[in-house]
Amino acid sequence: MRILAAGDHFVRPALMREAVSQELSHAGGELPEFTELTLPWPHEPFGPVAEVREASGTEDELVEALDGAAICVTQMAPFTERVFAASPGLRLVAVSRGGPVNVDLGAATRHGVRVSFAPGRNAPAAAEFAVGLTLAAMRRVAAADAELKRGAWRGDLYAYEEVGGELGGATVGLVGYGAIGRIVARVMRAFGAHVLAADPYADPEAVAADGVELVELDDLLGRSAVVSLHARLTEETHHLLDARRLGLLPPGAVLVNSARGGLLDHAPLPELLRSGALGALALDVYDVEPIPADWALRDVPNVITTPHLAGATRQTAHRAAAITAAEVGRFVRGEKLRHLANGDVLVDGGS
Length: 351
Known about the structure:
Blueprint: E1 2-7, H1 13-25, E2 33-38, E3 47-49, E4 52-55, H2 59-65, E5 71-74, H3 81-85, E6 92-95, H4 105-110, E7 114-116, H5 123-138, H6 141-149, E8 171-175, H7 179-191, E9 194-198, H8 204-209, E10 213-214, H9 217-223, E11 226-229, H10 243-246, E12 253-257, H11 269-275, E13 278-283, E14 303-305, H12 314-332
Parallel strand pairs: 1-2, 1-5, 5-6, 6-7, 8-9, 8-11, 9-10, 11-12, 12-13, 13-14
Antiparallel strand pairs: 3-4
Helix pairs in contact: 1-12, 5-7
């Protein structure tokens, strides 16, 4: 059996190979043959490739690397209809991401290929980053840092009308309450915040057990001094926070988005920030990535920006490889996959 480790410069091919080798060594027997492919992300931005989005590399190089492979472990490789059609021996694509957005699941199913993913791989990292962005935005850390470095000692930032607020006693609204949102809630409650969550798929009893109040989205926006986005981007959630909903925020509210740029309608943001209706904005994700030179928020006050780094820790890379390797182990042993994305696929006559 041949396995292709199609990694990149974050989840490296060697990391994937080592994790899979360790997983399979527990079962004894001969280890599979590995081939490796290194995709250019993050040195080159990911983007759409044919019909899939958020992919890295090309169909041609992937097809060539897949020659003879039954399994591929990857983070970003573009698994399109063309790739599946050109790889008849392929049986499993194990994606080391929270969602297999770089895979055409319909094509995988038609070609009898199982696709797994790695939910929760970056949850601790993304949650910590979201909390960090929130604190930086509330306390104007980035602006004060920039001013001091250019030689300005801004003592006036201690003036009553300039200072920020505290998380203790504040109402924090989380839009989306999955693995990341739950960790953020735990940290925010430790600060003394009252936490609201809006998520139509959340279990009300589990949310209540966490000490979090489950509410409708409009209610959350109207009550929250801080709003942090943690939903998945789908057709349903695209521009979930549009001009109307942004207008529900209390004056001076802080908005944080470290999930996906498409959740937020960026068009109203410059005026909301300039008018003070929105107190601060912290973004790690954008509607267009990388952001263009004429980006409308570039010179707007009280905006903190980072280049899509929320999940970027070494622990995330190791968790991603480990979760993916465990799925490969289950597949090789004939066990049910724990994180199967296309449950209707048939492989070798089995379900």
